[in-house]
Design a protein that fits this description.
The protein has helices at 3-6, 14-32, 37-40, 45-49, 53-74, 80-104, 112-128, 131-144. The protein is mainly alpha-helical. The chain has one domain (12-144).
Length: 145
Amino acid sequence: MTEASKVRTKPKMTGFMAGWLVFVGFYQIFLAANHGGLFFGQNNLLRQDLSTTALAVFYVVAGVLFLIVAYGIWTLRWWAFPLGLVVQGMVIALALEGIVRWLALGQQAPIIWDALDLAFAAFNLSWALSRDVRTAFYNLNSSAG
């Protein structure tokens, strides 16, 4: 393999997407540390839910996955593409679950956060499924062979 063929061209907005995922990853870990009151107030259901060990562990795992995907995207690792799709699928499922849960409980739902999660997931998926991103990661996967 020649040096010229080893040069990797990053797709547009790669830096933004990696930076965004770093922010989201640390935010998930921040939620796991039970500081959700910064955005949601001290005495609401999210704050109470965060006191459960299972949810805290989930937020830590999600945060770490976001950081791993961010690293993979920034350094153009072939595994970042499929892992990123899985993580975005998790975000969509959790946002939809959050909306359904809040509506089913009949409470004044701050579903704006879930709606924002869905909007950002749609943006992230549109970026990931764009031709230049798919081509860049497909070429990496086929050359990793």
